[in-house]
Amino acid sequence: MSSTPVAVVTGANKGIGFAIVRALCKQFPGDVYLTARDPGRGQEAVAKLQQEGLQACFHQLDVDDLQSIRALRDFLKEKYGGLNVLVNNAGIAFKVQDTTPFAVQAEVTLKTNFFGTRNVCTELLPLVKPYGRVVNVSSMVSSSALGGCSQPLQQQFRSDTITEEELVQLMTKFVEDTKKGVHAKEGWPNTAYGVSKIGVTVLSRIQARMLNEKRKGDHILLNACCPGWVRTDMAGPKATKSPDEGAETPVYLALLPSDADAPHGQFVSNKTVRPW
Ligand code: NAP
What we know:
Belongs to the short-chain dehydrogenases/reductases (SDR) family. The protein has 10 helices and 8 strands. It has helices at 15-27, 39-51, 66-80, 102-124, 140-147, 151-158, 164-180, 192-214, 243-246, 248-254; strands at 6-9, 31-36, 57-60, 83-88, 128-137, 221-226, 267-269, 272-274. The protein binds NADP nicotinamide-adenine-dinucleotide phosphate. Residues 10-11, 13-17, 36-38, 41, 61-64, 89-93, 112, 116, 137, 139, 226-227, 229-230, 232-235, 239 line the site of NADP nicotinamide-adenine-dinucleotide phosphate.
C-alpha cells in the first residue's frame, strides 16, 4: 500500500474540475486523480496536462452510478488506504433556453448535483484520512435560490440541527412537487439547479457537523464553495473568470494547511466565508 498522499477531483475532464486538477498537480504533494465518467474524455484530459508537463492519474467515476463510485472507493482503499483530498466538482445545468419539462430538469439535475454528490460522500468520506480536506463545489445560486424559498423552507435549510435524512426528504419532495406541478405552491423557487445547489451547501454544513461529532480529533476540514462565474461549457463565454481563476477558491480549500482549523462547514466564495 502506498503512503503517498492522494487527491481526487470529480468531473475533471473539462471546465473548472480540469483547472482544479491542473492547480493540484502543481501544488499538491502527492498523486492527483483526474476522474471522469467517460474514460476517453478523461484520458484525453490527462494527455493534455502531460503536454503541459503535469502528471495526473486517471480513474473512471460517474457520480450517477453507485457501482462506479464503489469501484473508485475500493481502488483508493487498496492502493492508498484512503484519501487526503476530495473535490466534489461534477455537476450539470440545463441551459436557460432548454425546453425540457421542468419536472424532468428537476429530476435529472438533482440526480447528479445532489444525489450523486451525496453518494460519493457516503462512500468516500469514511476513507478520508486525518487532516483531510473535502470541497463540495456549490454555487452562489444556492444562496439566491434559498432567498426564493418560503420562510418554512428557509428555516429548515438554515437549521443547525437538520439531518442528512431530512435534507434527502426535502430534495426528494422538490422533485415530486415539480412532477405534480405544485412546487411553487409548496414554497420552492423556480430553479432546479438552484435547489440542487441548496442541497450541496446544506449537505456540506451537515457533513461538517457530523465530522465534529464523530471524528473531532481528525482535523478534517470540509466546506462548500462557489468558484465564481467561470467561462466553461456550463456558463458560456461571457462569464468573467477563466477556469484557472475559478479553480482558485476550491484549490485554496483543498490545500488548507494542516494547522488550520477553519473554515469548516462554511460556504466560501472568493476565499471568503459567506453568510448562509
Ligand atoms: P462543465 O464545464 O460543464 O463541466 C462539468 C463537468 O462535470 C464535466 O467534466 C462533466 O463531464 C462532469 N459531469 C457531469 N455529470 C457527471 C457525472 N454524472 N459523473 C461524473 N462527472 C460528471 O461545468 P463547470 O462550469 O466546469 O462546472 C463545474 C462545477 O462548478 C459544477 O458543479 C458547477 O455547478 C459549478 N459551478 C460552475 C459555475 C460556472 O460559472 N461555470 C458557477 C458556479 C458553480 P462530461 O464532460 O462527461 O459531461
